[in-house]
Prior knowledge:
The chain is of the alpha+beta class. It contains 9 helices and 21 strands. It folds into 3 domains: 165 residues, FAD/NAD(P)-binding domain; 132 residues, 2-Layer Sandwich (D-Amino Acid Oxidase, Chain A, domain 2); 55 residues, Rieske Iron-sulfur Protein (3-layer Sandwich), CATH 2.102.10.10. The chain starts with 19 loop residues before the first strand and ends in an 11-residue tail after the last strand.
Amino acid sequence: MKSIWRDIDFPTFKSLSGDISTDVLIIGGGIAGLLTAYFLDRAGVDYLLVEKNKICTGVTANTTAKITVGQGFNYHKILSLRGKEMAQAYYHANKRAVKEYFSLCKNIDCDFEVKDNFIYSFEKHKIEKELEALEKIGYKAEYCDKLNLPFETAGAVKTKGQAQFHPLKFLAKISENLNIFEQTKVREMVGNTAITEKGKIKAKRVVVATHFPFINKHGKYFLKLYQHRSYVLALRGAADLNGMYVDEDNKGLSFRNFGDLLLLGGGGHRTGKNGGGYSELRQKARLYYPNAKEISAWATQDCISLDKMPYIGKYSNGVGEVYVASGFNKWGMTGAMCSAQLLADMLTGKRNEFEEVFNPERGILTPQLICNGFESVVNLLTPTTPRCPHLGCALKWNPQERSWDCSCHGSRFDSNGELLNGPATDGIENIH
Length: 432
């Protein structure tokens, strides 16, 4: 099963052949890596980007492609965890990212549409709490009680003038003239030198944009992140909702239209855990849109941070000039642009007012940290096979997607042991 975005002609790039050196090496050919490369290219920086497969065939190809500052009911959480100043900065960083998409998409044929965004809830007090938080940071969002949804809710927080687009049409244009090597897998890092099967890449600075960071020795990302799966159906013959809709609860449904299709998302669960998956989503589709026809179905995977804010900046205080972009918490389009803008500034010596907001070394002691640690310990001690080659956690069979999934850090493997999702860098041998 593949997303509707993949049915386009996409540029192809050669693989690495021999040793090479560069000022900036970007590892990962998804939207975060490509946008970073794009901004460095515009700035005249010597860089190159490597992707282990083809660019834009991973998580980026499976998005629902909403561009918005309205990201669940996160602002009251950020306000309580990090205070007013950081919550305000987070809002303005995302506002800047949305503005950049508006600017770039003026000149790119990518089905860009301005749409209002609605974060809905079944609990009125949650809506009131989020509206109050938004007002405290200087943004007066709207409460909306009449929604174009096929069920009753307590209303929604409405963010006007946001956007949606065709992500791969956008990235196909963005990547046309970038310095990219495909089919070039980084097997390990030795300092700032990337070891691949096709040569060594010596870099002064390195950007890790691999969705889940793959360098285990530093940064404690194995504790600071977990991965969450969600599912999407493309339905023909369903309603045009004239907006983007997302449940504030991760277990709820999302909606947005593309052409004559309705993209219905949901069935979410922590990777490696039981969840609704496609069966739950199809049940909802039959209930709410009984006359609609399923055209396509796909799944995606999101990195969830401890405080609902991405990790962007220096990989760790323990390493030199290595940078990271991860933990977009289901808002990868806006998060990727924030990452690219911030990292491009850091790499070109420009001051960026949002460095501290996204600093990966920020200390956040949350219940989720304890949960992540407990999950890792339990799965490390579970005496089953197969096991994940990332850090040795027990894998669980996912019957809906026919994959072996790791609930510790989200690596996934097909029935033959071939790697589907990182942070693992290799498949499983002798799986049967």
